[in-house]
Design brief:
Blueprint lengths: L15 H8 L3 E5 L2 E4 L1 H20 L3 E2 L5 E3 H7 L1 H4 L5 E4 L5 E4 L4 H11 L8 E10 L14 E11 L2 H21 L4 E5 L9 E8 L5 E6 L5 E3 L21 E4 L6 H8 L7 E8 L4 E6 L6 H8 L4 E3 L2 H8 L14 E5 H5 L3 E4 L5 E6 L9 E3 L18 E16 L1 H5 L3 E3 L5 E3 L1 E8 H11 L1 E2 L2 E2 L10 E5 L5 H16 L4 E3 L6 H11 L3 E5 L1 H5 L2 E6 L4 E6 L7 H7 L3
Parallel strand pairs: 3-7, 15-17, 17-20, 27-28, 27-29
Antiparallel strand pairs: 1-2, 4-6, 5-6, 7-8, 8-24, 9-10, 10-21, 11-12, 11-21, 13-19, 14-15, 14-16, 18-19, 21-24, 22-23, 25-26, 29-30, 30-31
Helix pairs in contact: 1-12, 2-6, 2-12
Bound molecules: adenosine-5'-triphosphate and magnesium ion.
Length: 566
């Protein structure tokens, strides 16, 4: 078997799964974000694929295999050819026709279904595939966790109405939970931003791990969990401690720009100061107001105003476009649309910038001194805040790896690409669609992030490349060789996947490699133990070894493996 193990990790490997996959001889890099999968790695990916396949089939998904190369025309029809940007790898064939390498397959699948499905009688329909995608990621890293070429299971569903789409969405959520449970992962299903894909229902499946690129906010007492960029804040209670409304007053604050500086200078709490953040968007400049101790959340603002994108404007843009020096912008008299967080809406007598150098206002009141376009939840939540959904819980924040993502797409693609069907009344309507993705390689990598120690990988049994690893201390010794070979055949006859280390290497090398590869159960066969009718069985997960009767113990191996499942 070809398993080129290494002592050293690649210099550019930042996370443990990347290091261990390379060291265990599972993957090799070919170019940035592009990997060859070697035999041991492929065994793991095939296991993950098979679990996904079984769970997709269980909810009546039907497997297809679509082309990875897609014609530009379909993407022009959906409107994404211009929108998708540099992540889309585009090229021309010998006739000068434009194509792309598929980063996702909504266009291809919608084209098939619109041609073949014309009646409500053929709906709902769930099609899926497991296939290679290409996305020209800005920052490919972490091995196959964020590659440019990677394996994805993508499923698409087609429905006559929203109710049917939601029913399938729920089934899909259940199937996803089964997939990640069966892969031995600790994960959370979190509310996610459906972004510009459209639709209003979307969840991510996040594997909790330090190396995760996403922040997940979840309640320590109820089920609520959300990508932090979307996590709701609890509505504030009204500011009743402050019944008297002060007058608006301009005061000189020479050189005091930051919340901290202004709060100290005026001897007020940062909660009494309102920050005015100027943001840029596809709808132009806007202003967001949050309390001085809070941060603005551009994703929430984007969804609030229905923009394609929103991001903080830079100091130069702000002073050029508004004529106001950075650090002194405030909502009173500001010629931008102003959006206020609910906490600002509840606040009285606050401090803001006065829209000129070295000046602030005190005694500011919303609805008296300025009007907000909308008062809404537009701030980031932080760890330790109260949960918005239950009476007693508080927010925890952890890092997560997004391994799966499910969406209701609505009619975005069926309208632009005319995937229409006749309803029972003979009326033509666009299909309602959903799409659902799982990263195969990323799931395997996430499993390593959660299951490893300083020696190597500790595979969860269901996705381990082999279940049992036989390690003869010296394969050239007759008795050891015979016992190892017969154990190997015996386990194979039991349909247990078994790897036999028949290399002539030193025992230390073989044992280190065994711990690196992380196969759940090791059988170490040596001459002294054999003479006493024993072999050593080591459980990789607990790093514990015990002597067992040989060959009798072989009959117990299925039970021992079963015991490792929980
Ligand atoms: P991310 O936010 O991590 O870039 P995404 O939201 O763009 O991912 P989706 O379009 O939702 O990804 O793709 C579905 C799944 O495909 C993801 O949940 C993830 O498991 C996997 N995936 C996406 N991009 C990559 C990548 N570059 N490398 C490996 N797997 C990926
Ligand atoms: Mg996603």
């Amino acid at each position: 078997m070809f398993i080129p193990t290494l002592k050293e990790s690649p210099a550019d490997a930042e996370v443990v799964s990347h290091k261990l996959m390379v060291r265990a001889g599972m993957i090799r890099q070919v170019a940035s974000g592009i990997y060859s999968i070697l035999p041991l790695g492929l065994r793991v990916l095939r296991k993950v694929e098979q679990i996904i396949r079984e769970e997709m089939n269980r909810i009546d998904g039907q497997e297809t295999f679509l082309p990875s190369i897609q014609p530009a025309e379909l993407w022009q029809e959906s409107g994404r050819w211009d929108f998708y940007g540099k992540e889309l790898l585009r090229f021309k064939d010998r006739h000068g026709r434009e194509f792309c390498y598929g980063p996702t397959h909504e266009e291809i699948i919608t084209d098939i279904v619109r041609k073949e499905v014309k009646s409500y009688k053929k709906l709902p329909l769930i099609l899926y595939q497991i296939q290679t995608k290409f996305r020209d990621e800005v920052r490919p890293r972490y091995g196959i966790m964020r590659g440019r070429e990677f394996m994805m299971k993508d499923a698409y569903s087609f429905h006559a109405d929203d109710a049917s789409a939601r029913e399938t969405y729920q089934k899909m959520a259940g199937a996803y939970a089964n997939i990640f449970k069966r892969c031995g992962l600790r994960f959370k299903m979190v509310e996610a931003d459906s972004g510009t894909i459209g639709g209003n229902l979307s969840h991510e499946f996040a594997v909790l791990a330090e190396s995760g690129e996403d922040h997940i906010g979840f309640c320590d007492s109820c089920d609520y969990a959300s990508n932090l960029e979307l996590a709701e804040a609890k509505a504030p209670s009204p500011d009743d401690d402050n019944p008297k409304l002060d007058d608006l007053k301009e005061i000189s604050t020479p050189g005091k720009k930051s919340v901290k500086e202004v709060a100290e200078y005026l001897s007020v709490s940062s909660k009494q100061i309102v920050k005015t953040i100027v943001l840029d968007s596809d709808q132009g400049l806007i202003a967001g107001l949050v309390r001085g101790d809070r941060e603005i959340n551009p994703t929430k603002l984007k969804n609030l105003i229905g923009a394609e994108w929103v991001r903080p404007a830079d100091a130069k843009t702000i002073s050029e476009e508004t004529g106001i020096p950075c650090g002194f912008v405030g909502p009173v008299g500001l010629k931008l649309k102003v959006y206020a967080d609910r906490e600002v809406g509840a606040l009285k007598n606050f401090v803001t910038g006065a829209n000129k150098t070295d000046a602030h206002f005190t005694g500011v009141q919303i609805n008296r001194d300025f009007q907000a376009e909308k008062i809404a939840d537009i701030r980031k939540v932080m760890e330790g805040e109260p949960c918005p959904r239950c009476p007693s819980g508080t927010y925890q924040v952890k890092r997560g790896i997004e391994v799966g993502h499910i969406f209701i797409l609505g009619t975005k693609y069926s309208k632009s690409m005319k995937a229409l069907f006749l309803d029972p009344n003979g009326k033509e309507r666009p299909m309602v669609m959903g799409c659902y993705g799982v990263g195969v390689g990323r799931t395997a990598a996430a499993a390593i992030e959660q299951n490893h120690d300083e020696k190597g990988i500790i595979w969860p049994v269901p996705i381990a490349p082999f279940a049992v690893h036989i390690i003869p201390t010296n394969y050239s010794q007759e008795a050891v060789k015979n016992a190892s070979d017969s154990a190997y055949r015996n386990l194979q006859e039991k349909n247990i996947e078994v790897l036999l280390d028949d290399r002539p290497d030193r025992l230390g090398v073989k044992l280190n490699d065994a711990d690196l590869l992380g196969i759940p159960l090791q059988i170490i066969i040596g001459p002294k133990n054999l003479e006493a009718g024993k072999v050593e069985i080591k459980i990789r997960k607990t790093n514990t070894s015990e002597l067992h009767d040989f060959p009798g113990v072989l009959e117990n191996i299925p039970a021992i493996l079963n015991g490792l499942l929980s």
